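Quick board copy: two proteins, each given as sequence then tokens.
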Amino acid sequence: MDLHAERIECAMPDGPPVSGMRLGPVEVFLGAQSGKFPDGNQVIVRGSDAMAVFDTPMVANRIATRLADADLVILGHVHEDHAAGLHLLPHVPLHVPRADVDAIRSLDGLRRHYGYSPGVVDAMVERARTDFHFVPRPDALAYDDGATWELGGLRVRAIHMPGHTAGHSVLLIEPLGIAFIGDIDLSSFGPYYGDACSDLGAFRRTLTRMLDLPARAWITSHHKGIVMERAGFSAQLERFAAVIERRDEALLAALREQPATLEELAARRFVYPPSFNDLFVPDVERRVALQHLEALIGSGRVERRGAHYAAMA
């Protein structure tokens, strides 16, 4: 089947329509600013027997009527911005990667998923509840790598691609070769691996596998939306992955100036620009810097001297 992107709209009674694209039986409704956080892009897959919804970002609340006939919801991973519309579908079966499922089943699970310092994590969980309509789903069903769902003429296959979270998975629509790649979002911000459930090493390994996906169209949760050409996807993936190496080099440059503690390095901001401030930023900067330091120690480019880290000569 040839894939041709067709523009679609969902009319709103109290505002402008929500725009999107259709690839045959797959609809992608774009969140605000092309799904930029805190919004995201909503994917709906219609088989002859069942309709599946991938994630439920903020835009889901604007197109609730399009989701009303959902037979199942599949999350590619758990974060508050990907569960902001789940409250619309409380009785629809929910499938979640096994390594992330505790974070959707309870607020305590979400706290462990974030892993921030006590005051910060409590505030973030409250933000998830109030700003993202987060409601725990203790009935959520865990799925594993290779899980499949038959929709009638279409099959969804889960491919475990961890790093962003421990359970982060690509959802591949077969036989169309359309891959929902979630928060491997090809953005200029680059990969995010700042939570307790995140892992830099796993993210690096995931990025090396992405071009092996049997896909011919790629859908991101944020920013890009749909990418239709392999060459374009490859180039964008390379730029996205290069952000990790730039963070390595920036950290090494700081240590070449003088040895530094983890706190001193985190204060220099290797993830967020100085103009961006939020309560979680110090925790994320520490978590990211520590993972880079551990990798650089492993490769012999950094050594630890008591509480300080130093670049190797």
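And the next:
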Amino acid sequence: MKTKIIYRIENPTDKNGMWYDKDGEPKKQIHILCPNGIDKNLPMPKNLELHRKDGEEWFSAGKSIENMNTWFSAEDALSLYENGFRLFKFEVNMWQELEYEILFCKKGIISKVEIPLHEVWDIKVKV
């Protein structure tokens, strides 16, 4: 079985992302929590053909850890962290590779590990 490593910033309590909640409803938390964010204007259109493929729910993730550093500044990452979001590395066996992102299905998660922010950005986080 083929697997892929991907990266996602999400809220571990409610599983919400920054543009959509876990149910696929637009929330745009990125605009509230990162008003000067690098990628707050990144178009994240919901495409039901892709986001509900095979009757499953698919979620957005970065293709690499470098994506996270490109998409989010240290200021963005810290603001998201202070508001309950965390950076995770997933190993998955269900994914769709798009031009700028990976869509993955949560039932295809093999492993999930939180990555400390200082491993990606030059910041110190109060834990």
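Board note added afterward: The mean pLDDT is 83.
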